[in-house]
Sequence to fold (117 residues):
Amino acid sequence: MKKFLIGCCLVLACAGIALAITTVTATVTWTNPTTGAAATSIRVERNTNGGVFAQVGATLAATATTFTDTAQPVGSTYCYRVIEANAFGDAPPSNQACVAALAPAGATNAVVTFTAQ
Fold:
């Protein structure tokens, strides 16, 4: 005699799943120079969609090597640069690290972390 399972133990697929990216967290990392005059502070600057760079967040200690920028809206391109300073002024800005924070079509409620180096 054959035994058949009729609907009692079948697992059905989920339906209606959705994802949206609503904010972006950008983590910027860098390496401090090992030669030249010692820095006393570091600031991180950001521009949005190619606009003017402006400082984001507080001025950091000269030993800092990372900065996290949170809750940026999706749908823009963010570029970051790092500037070291001491009593004699600012060093030239670092190169830029950019990320285009674009959400997939139909996505909802997620946070994406980008790391730029």
The radius of gyration is 23 Å. Strands lie at 20-29, 41-48, 54-55, 60-61, 66-73, 76-86, 89-90, 97-101, 109-116. Residues 48 and 78 are 5 Å apart (CA to CA). The chain has no helices and nine strands.
